[in-house]
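Project outcomes to date are best conveyed with an example. Our students and postdoctoral researchers have been running inverse folding experiments weekly, and each run begins with a structure described purely in tokens. The record below, which covers 461 residues, was selected by the lab manager from last quarter's runs and is presented without edits.
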């Protein structure tokens, strides 16, 4: 009698509402990407079949969240939903004070303006685009202090998001602690491939920073996913809940910026969370200038309620297992096919190694931008460049930054796509891989001043 080798796994939810997708032909897609200047950000949504551009604001909300939208208190001041969100942030993250913002970059703008003075340095475990820009606009200089393993796509280090403590200490000795505005800690680290930071490292960073009077600002955008990796990879945390791990992670920081559009399963929203009462007073004064009153921060009451309820759902272990498991499924299939991706597989996305895809292209032919365009033409899948275009230019010299990692990010929105969509994605990447030798690259023909990857335009070489 035959026996089952394994039991099948399925998503911990069922589908209640569907959004039809439009199928396009290859000829149509060739026209669409040409009109978009070979920039996937400039494609229209209706031209896209499977949208893996980002997991930011593209998640599917639950019936519990949608029910919360109906009890939105749209009072200009003192919305009930603000106080519910504040209570959930205190319960799950542990910070005392809350300043809501329209999304994560609103929080980045405020904390940068408060803590950075011209000429100061801001170390961090690899740059993120909007974070570094806000730091630079405030007069600061970002310094990468991530471990070297993070810059090697094939290195299997389980915590490639870790801070290199020696690099951090060397910076303190070189410029002086009073010239360091704060250290920013991303969890997980997006530009490194969604790689987590360990609790042990977080603890050590906090200790070194505190010893030198330096504040720690946490980018908690995907901290729940990071907590899941800690539970799986650090022995002492295997029996702890995700909520307990998250709370401890945040305890090793002084403040956090948050884009609720990722972990918290909403379409818009973010916040700045703080422990220092003086900084909080300044932040809630500044939010009135840039976002809205301190009890709505640019958000409708219903959006704050959806975010509060999203905090509860996003910390559930079965949700995180399904969310990260979907990414692992795609990554493992690509590895089996011999396709070069960032390893180990990260939390929110698969990162294709464009340098290994197109060894015939130097970085000024924009291999990652090219790969994203080729993938779209093949199947209608929209991905995102994370290489030289995203890295931008040195603010002093105007020269391109040349990051070691030249990646294309296939980012999976939470609770949106099925296993079949995952299989279609794998098959399309494999097709583009098999045709890699015929590709010649792109040239940039339009470059905006800030965050050029959003709006730059290219032509085929």
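After processing, the design step wrote out the following sequence:
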């Amino acid at each position: 009698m035959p026996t089952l080798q394994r039991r099948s796994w399925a998503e911990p939810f069922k589908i209640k509402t569907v959004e039809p997708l439009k199928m396009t032909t290859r000829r149509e897609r060739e026209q669409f990407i040409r009109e978009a200047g070979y920039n996937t950000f400039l494609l229209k949504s209706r031209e896209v079949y499977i949208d893996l551009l980002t997991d930011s604001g593209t998640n599917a909300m639950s019936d519990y969240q949608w029910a919360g939208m109906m009890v939105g208190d749209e009072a200009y001041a003192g919305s009930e939903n603000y106080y519910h969100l504040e209570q959930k942030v205190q319960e799950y993250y542990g910070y005392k004070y809350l300043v809501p913002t329209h999304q994560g970059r609103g929080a980045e703008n405020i904390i940068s303006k408060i803590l950075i003075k011209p000429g100061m340095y801001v170390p961090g475990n690899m740059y993120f685009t909007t974070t570094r820009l806000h730091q630079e606009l405030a007069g600061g200089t970002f310094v990468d202090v991530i471990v070297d393993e993070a810059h090697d796509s094939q290195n299997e280090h389980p915590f490639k998001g870790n801070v290199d403590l020696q690099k951090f200490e060397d910076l303190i000795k070189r410029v002086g602690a009073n010239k360091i505005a704060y250290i920013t800690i991303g969890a997980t680290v997006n530009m490194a491939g969604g790689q987590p930071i360990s609790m042990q490292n977080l603890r050590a960073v906090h200790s070194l920073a505190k010893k030198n009077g330096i504040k720690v600002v946490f980018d908690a955008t995907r901290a729940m996913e990071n907590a899941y990796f800690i539970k799986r990879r650090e022995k002492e945390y295997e029996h702890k809940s995700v909520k307990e791990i998250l709370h401890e992670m945040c305890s090793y920081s002084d403040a956090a910026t948050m884009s609720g559009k990722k972990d918290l399963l909403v379409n818009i929203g973010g916040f700045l969370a703080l422990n220092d009462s003086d900084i909080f007073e300044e932040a809630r004064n500044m939010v009135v200038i840039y976002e809205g009153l301190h009890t709505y921060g640019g958000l409708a009451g219903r959006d704050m309620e959806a975010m509060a309820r999203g905090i509860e759902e996003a910390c559930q272990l079965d949700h995180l297992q399904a969310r990260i498991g979907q990414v692992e499924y795609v990554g493992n299939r690509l590895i089996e096919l011999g396709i070069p991706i960032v390893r180990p597989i990260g939390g929110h996305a698969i990162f294709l190694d464009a340098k290994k895809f197109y060894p015939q292209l130097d970085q000024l032919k924009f291999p990652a931008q090219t790969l994203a365009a080729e993938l779209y033409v093949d199947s209608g899948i929209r991905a995102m460049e994370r290489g030289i275009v995203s890295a931008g230019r040195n603010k002093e010299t105007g020269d391109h930054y040349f990051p070691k990692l030249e990646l294309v990010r296939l980012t999976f929105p939470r609770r949106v796509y099925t296993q079949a969509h995952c299989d279609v994605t794998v098959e399309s990447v494999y097709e583009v891989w098999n045709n890699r030798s015929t590709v010649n690259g792109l040239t940039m023909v339009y470059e905006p001043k800030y965050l050029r990857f959003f709006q730059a335009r290219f032509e085929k070489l």
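Residues 52 and 412 are 6 Å apart (CA to CA). The radius of gyration is 22 Å. The training component of this project remains on track.
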